[in-house]
Each structure stands twice: as structure tokens, then as C-alpha cells.
Amino acid sequence: MKHELLQRELKVLSEVGMPIRYGTATIDVGYRLDLLVEDQLIVELKAVQNVAPVHKAQLFSYLRLGNKQLSLLLNFHAKHMKDGIHRIANNAPE
Known about the structure:
The protein has helices at 2-7, 53-66; strands spanning 12-22, 25-37, 41-46, 70-75, 85-89. By secondary structure, the protein is α+β, with helices and mostly antiparallel strands. The relative contact order is 0.17.
């Protein structure tokens, strides 16, 4: 996936560490984003039987912590890839 995005000349970072801030305390790498595209889009890759609410909650947390607006959850275990794509937006109804 990263290779395809790089071929399209997009800026793509993988395994991006995201700090967690609580009051004055900071945990340097509390989470790791699978992919960050153009410093705007968070892409989380899964290969699970069913996407659970916890997977979507994870993306909402990433969006809030990273001050981003849009993410994609891609589940490669889906029979058809179109059924494995979930768009999750910050401060917007699903």
C-alpha cells in the first residue's frame, strides 16, 4: 500500500509515533499510526474477521490526539475490499 502511494508522489510515513499528553505529562510514543498520508490522512490497516467498535474508537483517538480530520480503516480480511473500507472523520457523523 505504501509503495502505491509513493508511486503517486504522495508523502507517506509509516509507523508514526504519536505522543499522549495528559496535563503536563507526555508519553513520547503512546500510539503508532500505521500510515500518515500528506500529514493529513491517518490510515489504519487491519486483517480481522469483523471490525469491532474498539477499532473505530482507536481511530477517533488518533484523530483527536493528532488534531487530524480524516482517517481510513482498511480491513484486508473482508471478502471484497470495498466492504473493508471504513471512513472515520473527526467531529462529523459517521
